[in-house]
From TrEMBL:
Protein name, entry field: Rad3-related DNA helicase
Alphabetized UniProt keyword annotations: ATP-binding, DNA-binding, Helicase, Hydrolase, Nucleotide-binding
Domain ATP-dependent helicase C-terminal: 446-569
Organism (species): Halostagnicola kamekurae
Biased segments, Basic and acidic residues type: 644-657
InterPro entries: ATP-dep_Helicase_C, DinG/Rad3-like, P-loop_NTPase, RAD3-like_helicase_DEAD
SMART domains: HELICc2 (SM00491)
Region Disordered, residue ranges: 1-27, 308-345, 592-670
GO terms under biological process: nucleobase-containing compound metabolic process
Length: 670
């Protein structure tokens, strides 16, 4: 296995230590290259390790293909399994193939890690009786101290971290240290990807035989996010005491980061010299330690000529000119002042080596949307020759997961004001079509969510509409799910890790093609290099994830309505990267004839003519559709007019976007 001299881990916060030099230069990771590492993963027991009493859909054949892929000598197996196919059960079976501590020699890794970037996915695993032997560990802030007068204090602010030399009499019963001890000593430890990455180099969570990453499609983006360094008043505790220079390039940013690291170290040492700290002091100390690690990582990586990482610097103008005249963390007193900055890595292969690839012998990466194997490997720094792709068949009938074209125009920033009112009217008509069923609207941004909510209230259907805030999104979501009312939930960034099985949701609306923000420097940099295939593929991935929210089992059903005409152009551009099962949905897409606009019917339960008593046609399709996806009977006049307008918009969109790729995606509001 590729190794590196990372030094020893020190400090309070588990954080990847700075690196010096990798032995294999800037090429892709080649797992299994060290003759000292013996591969003894036992894939022959993959079937007996499957935790469910019986197989569903294509699970048995998927396990057979995964076994064969590992036995063919691949170190990494990508498992492309459609939403609802039981990826967590497949993951458990793979993890169970890791050699046990009894089977391994003392020098060999044993056991397995299960990790996922989604907190909600980890919650689902923890609550699943079939996965009870996945021992979950979370970060300290998720646990409360059990001392009598500290029961509302998170463990990361408890007396054991506030007072020097504190001897806790109940540490053996501390919920955090108890869960950590169990997870570190059992065969399968489960944690979020953030915790997994933060514990790289830890003596507690060492290299294991098998690492399973669920929902792995965004691994490169998650690594970029974790490795991003934000320097500003919210992230730097001593910000008000700093003199921040105007940074005009990465080289100057590295010099400033080095000086700032020294300044943070001095302040941290002052805190460590105290006998007792307040909770606020503890938060400052821990953040300083974390920040020091981030800055040292950046400086080391940037100055390593063999590192493949490209670094970008974004800086805001200074809020005022009253910054102190001292030289703390600056390039000198005469330097021109600057404001908060963000230091961003692109394709942080080196970071992933330390935090992921050096943590195991064999890897299984599962997702419904690893759309292009070679492109994915390039992004995460793997050699495609050592990676196999296993495609799991989709066993949900395509007629149970229809796509409907109700496009009303483009949702690009300059056309949104004209398109949104038409989409709002369309949502009312969709609500009429589903008067007694719950629905989800993917609003894409809070600005769109707020405008849609206002329009729908103006139309008189606000009583059936729910929204959520940034801080209360989880509570608002759970309240909507628990309700029996046929309310429509306007959501933001809920295309992933959301299980709306059965009557929890029967229809959803995609309001906007989820293109990445072209105002982001990383996105702009890639587009300047002509990486348009990556750009469209990333948006397609989000759409496929979103379409899977409402159909969770072979006998489940739910309709997805597409309201932004840019979605249709995206399907044309990214068709070569579509999985076959999603391409079948796109090929079957048709335009429904919705009821005429009548807000009163949308809230009074009087719409949806020709509906069966269950709200679903006998063939399992969305209500009032024929086998081809078209509504039975004559179209209403308003439906025909809407369709004609949409057809014209679709035609003009495709024509203009082909002449200028950016014309169809230019959107800088996120």
């Amino acid at each position: 296995m590729v190794g590196g001299d990372f030094g020893s881990r020190s400090g309070i916060v588990d954080r990847p230590s700075p690196v010096s030099r990798f032995t294999d230069g800037d090429g892709p990771v080649v797992l299994g290259s060290s003759p000292a590492v013996v591969r003894t993963v036992n894939t022959e027991r993959i079937f007996e390790e499957f935790p469910a009493p019986s197989y569903r859909g294509a699970q048995e054949s998927a396990l057979r293909d995964i076994r064969d892929a590992f036995e063919a000598g691949n170190d990494v197996v990508l498992v492309r399994a459609p939403t609802g196919s039981g990826k967590s059960l497949l993951a458990r079976a793979i993890a169970g193939c890791a050699q046990t501590i009894e089977e391994a020699d003392p020098s060999e890794p044993s056991g397995a890690y299960y990790t996922t970037p989604q907190v909600s996915q980890l919650d689902d695993v923890a609550a699943d009786d079939l996965l009870s032997d996945l021992n979950v560990i979370r970060g300290k802030s998720n646990y409360n101290c059990i001392l009598p007068h500290e029961r509302d204090t998170p463990v990361n602010q408890a007396p054991c971290v506030r007072e020097r030399g504190y001897d806790c009499s109940v540490k053996h019963r501390c919920p955090y240290f108890s869960d950590r001890a169990i997870a570190s000593n059992r065969e399968i430890a489960a944690m979020t990807l953030a915790y997994f990455m933060q514990t790289a180099g830890s003596e507690v969570f060492r290299t294991r035989d098998v690492v399973v990453v669920d929902e792995a499609h965004g691994l490169a983006e998650w690594a970029e996010m974790y490795a991003t360094i934000r320097l500003g008043p919210r992230s730097v505790p001593i910000w008000e005491d700093l003199r921040v220079p105007d940074v005009d390039g990465v080289d100057r940013a590295a010099r400033y980061a080095e000086n700032l690291s020294q300044t943070c170290t001095r302040r941290k040492d002052e805190l460590l010299s105290q006998e007792s700290l307040t909770p606020a002091d503890v938060r400052e100390r821990d953040r300083l330690q974390e920040l020091i690690g981030e800055l040292e990582w950046f400086v080391s990586d940037y100055r390593d000529p063999e590192s493949p990482t490209t670094w970008l610097i974004d800086q805001e103008p200074p809020a005022d000119t009253d910054q102190p005249s001292g030289g703390n963390g600056s390039d000198g007193e005469d330097a021109e002042l600057g404001g908060p900055m963000t230091i961003k890595p692109m394709n942080p292969e080196r970071y992933l080596r330390h935090t992921v690839w050096d943590r195991g012998n064999k890897f299984a990466l599962l997702s419904a949307t690893i759309l292009n194997k070679d492109a994915f490997c390039r992004q995460v720094g793997l050699n495609p020759e050592n990676v196999a792709l296993v495609d799991v068949e989709h066993t949900f009938p395509v007629e149970n997961r229809p796509l409907y074209d109700v496009t009303q125009g483009k949702m690009t920033y300059d056309q949104r004001d004209d398109t949104l009112p038409e989409i709002a009217r369309t949502i009312v008509r969709i609500m009429q079509e589903h008067p007694d069923e719950k629905g989800l609207v993917h609003a894409h941004s809070y600005a769109i969510q707020e405008r849609l909510a206002d329009l729908l209230r103006d139309f008189g259907v606000g009583g059936r509409i729910r929204t959520h805030t940034r801080d209360g999104r989880d509570a608002d979501l759970e309240e909507w799910k628990a309700s029996d009312d046929p309310d429509v939930f306007l959501s933001v960034k809920m295309e992933e890790a959301l299980d709306l099985k059965g009557d929890l949701c029967r229809f959803q609306v995609l309001c906007k093609a989820p293109f990445l923000n072209t105002g982001d420097s990383r996105v702009a940099h890639r587009l300047e290099e002509g990486q348009w295939a990556w750009y469209y593929r990333t948006a397609l991935r989000t759409i496929i994830q979103g379409c899977g929210r409402v159909v969770r089992a072979p006998d489940d059903y739910g309709a997805t309505y597409l309201a932004d005409s840019s979605l249709l152009d995206l399907f044309d551009r990214a068709r070569t990267d579509m999985p076959d099962w999603f391409e079948a949905q796109v090929d079957r897409m048709d335009a429904p004839s919705l009821p005429s606009f009548d807000p009163q019917a949308a809230v009074a339960g009087t719409g949806g003519a020709n509906r069966s008593s269950s709200g679903r046609s006998s063939a399992g399709r969305s209500p009032s559709t024929s086998a081809s996806g078209s509504r039975t009977g004559d179209r209403s006049q308003s439906g025909s007019e809407s369709r004609s307008s949409s057809d014209r918009n679709r035609s003009s969109t495709r024509e203009s976007s082909r002449s200028s790729p950016l014309a169809d995606v230019w959107d800088t509001d996120g």
